[in-house]
Amino acid sequence: MPTLPDTTAFFNREVTAVARDLLGAEFTLDGVGGIIAETEAYHPTEPASHAHRGPTPRNASMFLGPGHLYVYRSYGIHWCLNFVCADGAAVLIRAIEPLEGIERMAERRGLANRRDLCSGPGKLAQALAVGKQHDGLRIDAPPFRFRPPESPPPVVIGPRIGITKAADLPWRFGIAGSAFLSKAFRPG
DNA sequence: GGGGAGATTATCT
DNA sequence: GATAATCTCCCCG
Predict the structure, then answer these.
(1) DSSP A147-159
(2) Of A87, A90, A12, A19, residue with least CA distance to A54
(3) Rounded to the nearest 5°, which phi and psi values hold at A90?
(4) Where are the alpha helices (DSSP H) in A58-165?
(5) Which of A43, A60, A147, A159 sits most deeply, having the most CB atoms within 10 A of its CB?
């Protein structure tokens, strides 16, 4: 009987390594979710991070330690889901391949096309019904289920999307060839 | 299939 | 008062 990987140890590593290793991981909320297909890393030392200027009421959960969730409202409309690492670093979950609870996702999104259910940070938050009530919770306790990948998928890397600061850093990671990404990676 | 405008609100200057 | 880790719809081709 193999020992299950320790979740805190998984997230207590360099944030770009965690972002890459999250690809292929299983994540569900109340049995709704699938396989993480796209992530972005954020570190307090670069200005795109919400933790760049230190702790504030909004980003408090970024400092709870490895294995917690950071959920924030984006553009006053959408919710975005992050997994916290060490020292205020966090990984934004940008896309999930829907596998479980697809019916409920389709209802929440008002869409039938599986490809569009979770292909973006705001979309997947709506599909999984992620909200402020999940900010600061542990990823390895109900209503969540988290399981790291058993074998690493092929990875593509590129610059992060939708930001103006530190936009040159290649800190976006995706499963190569996945049909469920928020946007294609530029070849090269 | 691609580009641009608008929606909407918490947070910080 | 400006900004923001986004999404959808509309127009054009």
Answers:
(1) E--SSPPPEEEE-
(2) A87
(3) -155, 160
(4) 102-109, 121-128
(5) A43
Of chain A residues 55-74, which have a beta carbon within 7 Å of strand B? Answer: 56-59, 73
Interval A28-40 mean pLDDT:
97
For the stretch A52-93, pLDDT in tens is 999 999 999 999 999 999 999 999 999 999 999 999 999 999
Q: How far apart are CA A136 and CA A134, in angstroms?
A: 6
Residue A73's Cβ-count burial label (10 Å; 0-12, 13-18, 19+) is middle
> Which nucleotide is nearest to A70 if distance is taken from CA to C1'?
C5
Residues A165-187 pLDDT 10s: 998 899 999 999 999 999 999 88
Considering only CA atoms, which of A129, A83, A105, A98 is closest in space to residue A36?
A: A98
Q: Closest nucleotide to residue A62 (Cα to C1')?
A: C5
Looking at residue A187, its pLDDT comes to 80
Q: For A86, left (φ over 0), alpha (ψ -120 to 50), or beta?
A: beta
Mean pLDDT across the stretch A108-132? 94
Could you tell me the pLDDT band of residue A127, with boundaries at 50, 70 and 90? very high
Q: Which domains can be identified in chain A, with CATH numbers?
A: 4-175 (3.10.300.10)
